[in-house]
Amino acid sequence: MLEGKNRMLAWPRQNSEGNHALPQDHKVITLGSGELCHQHHYTSLHVISDMPKSHDVALRDAYAAGPPPVNFAVVLPGLYRSGYPEKQDYPFMQGLQLKTIVTLVGKDLPDGYQEFISVNGIKHEVFDMAGTKKADIPLQTMQSIIAIISNRKNYPLLIHCNQGKHRTGCVVGVLRKIQDWDIASIIREYKKFAEPKVRETDVEYITKFRLSDLPRAVSRSNSEPYVVRAFYGMMMLASFTLSVWIYSGTKLLMLITT
Q1: Strand, coil or helix: what is 101?
Q2: Residue 11: which of 82, 123, 71, 89 has the closest Cα?
């Protein structure tokens, strides 16, 4: 019996102990500007404090529940990418406690996908994008997608296309530009997921995309990690407190000397 939208589907476990173990080759490898964990890209950004679970706990629970979708990776804590999920991937996705799924291809949903989305109370945004080899991504479409995935209120969020390579790669590439990644690192990440079918049209699109074409609502402050903004907030509070303390001390000293 399902009780409310937060009630999860009870998906079957697959091993003899009633649980999935983490992959045998699960390891962390330091790689330049971030980390590669089980071949999944991490940046140095921190977990958003208002998420229902910490990023690490959600990811651990997801791997304990089942295998991830093809080409799955962490873009930011709480923001994930992959190819089109299949039925065997639903337990893993359930472990992520997704709030939003952004689908970059318009086609009939596979068996059980709509039920999974509905039962878990997930908001589903679908963009019927043509393959990037066939047509350029319309600017308005990219603006709408970035507005959704750069808004942390939509996290945890999964963005996917068919294989998690080209359409998804272009979107992530634009997001990296917002984060001030250098273009070499952006293209390196794109190629990592697109190989062996790297599309020069995608590389050109990412390289030439102008951040000035994005609406003002999608600013760099939207993509800053919570911890950075919290740090600046604490610094401002400390400065204010120090100013009040100095002012009070000065007034007290004037009263004493007079």
Answers
A1: strand
A2: 89
- Comparing C-alpha atoms, which of 178, 237, 176, 246 is closest to residue 212? 178
Give the pLDDT of residue 187.
96
Q: Give helix 200-208 / helix 183-194 axis angle, nearest 10°.
A: 150
State whether residue 68 is helix, strand or coil.
coil
Closest by Cα among 56, 60, 62, 51 to 8: 62
**pLDDT at 45 (0 to 100):** 34
| Cα separations in angstroms, 47 against 84, 160, 197 | 25, 21, 33
Measured distance between the N- and C-terminal CA atoms of the chain, rounded to whole angstroms: 78
Over the chain (258 residues), the average pLDDT of each successive run of 10 is 35 36 36 36 36 78 93 96 95 95 92 94 93 83 95 96 95 96 96 93 94 70 44 54 61 62
- Tell me which amino acid residue 161 is: C
Residue 252's pLDDT is: 58
- The token pair at 91 is 């337990």
Q: Could you give the residue numbers annotated as active site?
A: 161
**101: nearest Cα among 64, 149, 172:** 149
With left for phi above 0 and alpha for psi between -120 and 50, is residue 224 left, alpha or beta? beta
